[in-house]
Amino acid sequence: DGNFVHCPRHDEWSRIEKLCEFLRVFYEVTCAFSGSKYPTSNLYFPNIVRVRILLKEEMEKGDGFMRSMAARMYGKFKKYWAEFSTIMAIAIILDPRYKFHFPDWTFKMIYGADHVIELSLLKDKLFCLFDEYSKSTKGSATDMLSSNCEAANVGKVSNPLMQDFDQYSNDVFQSVAKSELELYLEENKLPRVENYDVLGYWKQNESRLPVLSQMARDILVIPLSTVASESAFSVG
């Protein structure tokens, strides 16, 4: 560059080296978010936690230049975290390699003494979402069953005993549906292997966990390219 008369000093080279190492993380995360040929929503939370921890470290331990830049970036990042962290934390929970273990581990680093409260809020939202899927699935199944029964029972006298049984069966179905999420979370997580087919897991377990499988598919296929990650990580 013709504008430079002297070579950078040793301390300037050191600063450049730190900056390159710092920005490399954001480059890798942005590349991971840009994937379009595979479901990427389960990649979000580990990467975004990596960014949050990096920014906090530089704000606390970096030199003046790095602290200033990290603080500006963190200002934008907080809004990004508030908007997207919950749904993508749920996505990592629905990855059988991580389940609730990963949020539990990372929230301790992120929130410190408040991690128990934040985990409780996340769990409440997870179960609330699952309950909504349970109601939707139950409604569809009940409507179909009622339609078939009406067609089959035209001209037949209703049996009060069997009506009571139908009510009991519906109540049990709801109970079983609610237990799917609990069952999944209680089972051991799978080994953490690279390039694991998460959607394949839910396809294989659809008959065993029908409601949770539908919920997992809907969340895991959210393309992270729709999230404005580049603007969130901008230093400007």
How is this structure best described in words?
With 236 residues, this protein is mainly alpha-helical. The chain has one domain. It is 73% helix and 0% strand. It is built from 9 helices and no strands. The protein has helices spanning 10-33, 41-61, 64-93, 101-111, 115-152, 160-186, 198-204, 210-220, 229-232. α1 runs antiparallel to α2 (41-61) and α2 (41-61) packs parallel to α4 (101-111). The two termini are 24 Å apart. The mean pLDDT is 82.
Give a nutshell description of this structure.
One of its GO terms (molecular function) is protein dimerization activity. By secondary structure, the protein is mostly helical. Helices cover 73% and strands 0% of the residues.
Write the topology of this structure:
Elements: H1 10-33, H2 41-61, H3 64-93, H4 101-111, H5 115-152, H6 160-186, H7 198-204, H8 210-220, H9 229-232
Helix pairs in contact: 1-2, 2-3, 2-4, 4-5, 5-6, 5-8, 7-8
Identify the notable features of this structure and list them briefly.
236 residues; mainly alpha; 9 helices; 0% strand; elongated; HATC_C_dom; protein dimerization activity
